[in-house]
Design a protein that fits this description.
By secondary structure, this protein is mainly α. Helices cover 59% and strands 2% of the residues. The chain has twelve helices and two strands, in the order αββααααααααααα. Helix 3 packs across helix 4, helix 6 packs antiparallel against helix 7 and helix 9 crosses helix 10. The longest helix has 24 residues.
């Protein structure tokens, strides 16, 4: 019952107060999804490189995570060297100095900062060397403090190692805390286990929250196989469109357009260098 009850509301950006996006490719302004098409999924396939871009950025000065749309707008006003939330100067800060600021947040048991620092160690960026063991320690610490993102990343880690029991445990905790991609992952795991009815429940919740992968799966698998009625799929499509609309804004569309142009430029440069 706890796993399938209504999740808590999405986390809002502290500047625009819009719900944080699930990922970068879920909130571009497109025609609504219909019974024959999920345009966001089509967009995602065409712009797969966008899935590797940051949806939000956590600033070590104040510990706030700001959405890409607000960051893009703030930088467009000529203040790209400052934090969009607290306006502190970040331009003169090195990666090492940023990490010192992050450590202050970590010492204060800020789960968001601990998660970000763990991600830095996992990927070997922000001025630290790659250390997967250290990353896991930090993610576990953040998870214990209630970070759904940390639980999700731990789930991804254990899924890659095919430790499905631990992966599912972390995905369940993340999903109950409102992490929509974790909900989709649970649907995927249950589907592989042959628990199609349970998988469908997870996918319905994820799709209603705006997860395009879940919506696409419901359309191309469950609906076509007669596992979901026309009335039910129409209701989920309406919830899906409404959820995506809540995450859209002109600033976020402008940010995505900029990322698209950068992606195209990088692809052209790579082709020229071959």
């Amino acid at each position: 019952m706890a796993l399938f009850k209504d999740p808590p509301p999405k986390e809002d950006c502290p500047i625009c107060f819009l719900p944080m996006r699930i990922d970068l490719i879920c909130c571009v302004s497109l025609p609504p999804a219909t019974i024959s098409s999920v345009p966001i999924h089509d967009f995602a396939k065409t712009n797969a490189g966008l899935s590797n871009n940051d949806v939000e950025l956590c600033y070590p000065c104040c510990g706030n995570s700001v959405c890409g749309g607000c960051i893009h707008s703030f930088h467009g006003s000529g203040t790209n060297l400052k934090c969009p939330f607290c306006n502190s100067d970040r331009g003169s800060k090195t990666d090492e100095e940023d990490n010192v600021d992050f450590m202050k947040q970590v010492e204060a048991n800020d789960p968001g900062a601990i998660y970000v620092l763990g991600s830095s160690y996992y990927h070997g960026n922000r001025g630290v060397l790659r250390d997967r063991e250290k990353a896991m320690e930090l993610w576990k610490q953040a998870a214990e403090l209630g970070s759904s993102r940390a639980h999700f990343q731990l789930g991804v880690h254990f899924e890659k190692g095919e430790d499905w029991k631990k992966a599912k445990l972390h995905y369940e905790v993340a999903a109950m805390a409102g992490h929509k991609l974790a909900r989709y992952k649970l649907g995927y795991i249950d589907f592989l286990s042959g628990k199609k009815e349970r998988a469908s429940k997870h996918l319905k919740l994820a799709a209603s929250a705006g997860v395009y992968r879940a919506m696409n799966n419901l359309l191309v698998v469950d609906f076509k196989q007669g596992l979901i009625s026309r009335d039910e799929i129409d209701s989920i499509l309406t919830a899906y469109n409404n959820s995506c609309a809540e995450m859209r804004s002109e600033a976020r569309d402008a940010y995505i357009l900029m990322k698209q142009e950068t992606l195209i430029s990088d692809l052209l440069l790579s082709a020229l260098l071959r």
